[in-house]
Amino acid sequence: MLTKDATDKSYVKPSFISLFSGCGGLDLGFIKAGFVPKAAYDIWPLAVENYEKNLGQHIKVLDLSHAKIPYTEQCDIVVAGSPCQGFSTVGKRQVDDPRNNLLHAAVKIAIDANPKVMVFENVPGILQGAHKGHWDQACETIAAAGYDFSGMTIDSRDIGIPQTRKRVILVAWKKNINLIPEIKKRQPPTLRDVIKGASKLSNHAPKKLTVDSADYKIASHIKAGQKLCNVRGAETSVHTWEIPEVFGDTSDEERQVLNSIMKLRRRKRIRNYGDADPVSLESIQAEVGRKVLRNINSLIKKNYIKTVESKVDLRHTFNGKYRRALPEGASFTVDSRFGDPQCFLHPTKQRGFSVREAARIQGFPDDYVFHGSLEDQFRLVANAVPPLMGFAIGEMIKAAFVGKNHE
After folding, report:
1. Residues that are catalytic
2. What is the CATH topology of the domain spanning 230-314?
């Protein structure tokens, strides 16, 4: 048993192996927390290449669905960030998505490695509906192998990351280890502060918008904390009919009709699915207190609304594009579209984010250089576990290895 304090010269740093490592976000956090990586595996060659160039030669390309790895030496910890697409509420959420079984492959590999501690990371969607069966099965398998375990949901903002990203962590430890499943909280910097100075660094090549482009004109109307959205009426939503230079002029009466349709389509429900329905002419007239057929026909010609059988509905019914976060607040969850201004706007400039800005929001150090196409670089950053999240988890585990929390 390790009982030495980390400051003791005889102290040996705990080792770990990493499954589904991606480009190494989780691993970077564990390394910073004082752990030594022994082996890492991922199926995406480009992720492995980036990991190798930035973290070391101990990673290999490997299909982990077979639940076997070539590493046979003893290690203290196994960490795994198995694919989340099948569990994510953003996707199709198919219970039988083959990627869901990769969690169980990770559990089997980890148990076979016989570590002191195991860590499994995924999205909160794994705890919802029928998908929770995968989580429950993993917990049962871990308990049957003789481990204690605890699940926790970590909000990035609680651990010093200025981003609205939540992740579920399943931590398991051998019964002779006194691990306290509690994450140390930290105050995050502002989005403005975390991306300040990124323009002088590598991987900074944001997509620039020309002043006469539709994207630039739309972005100019979107203030911090707002988005382009026709289906909500709050001040955070800017409607297409408020940007006539791009979408076309409308009269006061036509805007009154458009606003009434926006409200009625969610209030006058017909179907038992979705969150809105087409609206009847009678409902609109009752809402505004006058006849509206002339306005309806005009708005159809202007492509603001469309007919759906005997009813009408708005065009552009997305729930938000050109999202601009508050510079003094937190970023939206970093995803692979962060370089596209039609999806996400820089908090103060008329453009999207650069790879380096997205990497900083995730918590990657500035000396981590990303390789590959621009699209792949954003994907590498977005798919990674934020390194600071790895560090917070690593600190929690380290406490069980170095003193008062270890038997």
Report:
1. 84
2. Arc Repressor Mutant, subunit A (1.10.10)
